[in-house]
């Protein structure tokens, strides 16, 4: 004998259960923390508040998606820049690899200092010396050849302290921030003093930022036909230095929109943050990453050759830029594999 069921009542229960499930799912998603590597301190709250007010259509500070541009420095903001810039580490390795083809380097500075491991003399050569190293090691080849060399180096080179690939020393909190912004309709760009061709081979895989959204320093190139093949040949001449006042110039030239959010860590980012935030409406956001964690990474600001944070740190107190204390505000420093 078949059991008797109250089908109207059963149907009602099924409908209510399904409705409850539909309500619970969005709630669970809404409660998922998009920035799990950030401690629940003021910087995280400021990020979330800014994103909410520029993305909510009912907000008086709503910003349409095409105008949601966020720019990020790379060295010291997205990945480690100590004990030296990765660009410099690459140049040093290139000097050693090319030395057999250039016997004159044994008696020519700053190449002589590199080959002898004389970092004091190399440091004294300053930016001029670094440019000489780059011109001597990054030019004289096609862009495709350089791309191959840079890709192979970044895949095999190791940081001297952590003994890991440099691409594993990217900051997990910042990787989460990039993803969070993109999930909320932002377009994210790198605006770095580092070489554009050294960054482009790997930024999409590591940061989710494609090559066309990477802006950096560059050397001149010219079109050449080589064995009936069209190429771009790298010349030993500076094309553009994407640092300090050069950053707003590059943003205007390559992006064509003033960003509404900018993230940096040093005086090299001062003008980029000024250009982004000191322009009135709509809502704008500036953030500095302050390296304060000597145990998990490094602690430095005003007294360092790499990533000096001095004028920009003073400006933050006046402009209202958020300053991230890495030791206090980040649960985790480096990216998870």
UniProtKB/TrEMBL annotation:
Q: Which InterPro entries match?
A: HAD-like_SerB, HAD-like_sf, HAD_sf
Any idea which UniProt keywords this protein has?
Answer: Signal
Q: Which Pfam families match?
A: HAD
Q: Does the keyword Signal apply?
A: yes
Which first-to-last residue range defines the signal peptide?
A: 1-30
Q: What is this protein called?
A: Haloacid dehalogenase-like hydrolase
Which organism encodes this protein?
Answer: Rhizobium changzhiense
């Amino acid at each position: 004998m078949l059991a008797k069921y109250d089908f109207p009542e059963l149907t009602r229960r099924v409908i209510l259960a399904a409705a409850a499930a539909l309500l619970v799912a969005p709630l669970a998603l809404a409660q998922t923390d998009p920035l799990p590597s950030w401690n629940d301190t003021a910087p995280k709250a400021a990020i979330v508040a800014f994103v909410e007010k520029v993305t909510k259509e009912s907000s008086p500070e709503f910003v349409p998606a095409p105008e949601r541009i966020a720019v990020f420095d790379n060295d010291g903001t997205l990945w480690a820049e100590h004990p030296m810039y990765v660009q410099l580490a690459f140049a040093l390795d290139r000097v050693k690899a090319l030395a057999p083809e250039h016997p004159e380097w044994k008696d020519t500075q700053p190449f002589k200092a590199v080959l002898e491991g004389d970092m004091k003399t190399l440091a004294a050569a300053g930016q001029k010396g670094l440019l000489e190293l780059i011109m001597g090691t990054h030019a004289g080849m096609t862009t495709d050849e350089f791309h191959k060399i840079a890709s192979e180096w970044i895949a095999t080179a190791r940081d001297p302290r952590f003994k890991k690939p440099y691409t594993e020393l990217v900051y997990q909190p910042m990787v989460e921030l990039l993803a969070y912004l993109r999930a909320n309709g932002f377009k994210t760009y790198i605006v770095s003093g580092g070489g554009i061709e050294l960054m482009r081979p790997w930024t999409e895989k590591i940061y989710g930022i494609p090559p066309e959204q990477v802006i950096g320093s560059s050397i001149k190139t010219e079109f050449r036909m080589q064995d009936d093949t069209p190429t771009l040949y790298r010349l030993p001449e500076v094309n553009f230095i994407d640092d300090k006042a050069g950053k707003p110039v590059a943003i205007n030239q390559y992006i064509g929109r003033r960003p509404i959010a900018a993230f940096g860590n040093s005086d090299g980012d001062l003008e980029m943050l000024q250009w982004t935030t000191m322009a009135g409406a709509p809502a704008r956001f500036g953030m500095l990453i302050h390296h304060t964690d000597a145990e998990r990474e490094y602690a430095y600001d005003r007294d360092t050759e790499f990533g000096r944070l001095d004028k920009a740190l003073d400006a933050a107190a006046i402009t209202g830029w958020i300053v991230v204390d890495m030791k206090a505000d980040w649960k985790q420093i480096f990216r998870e594999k």
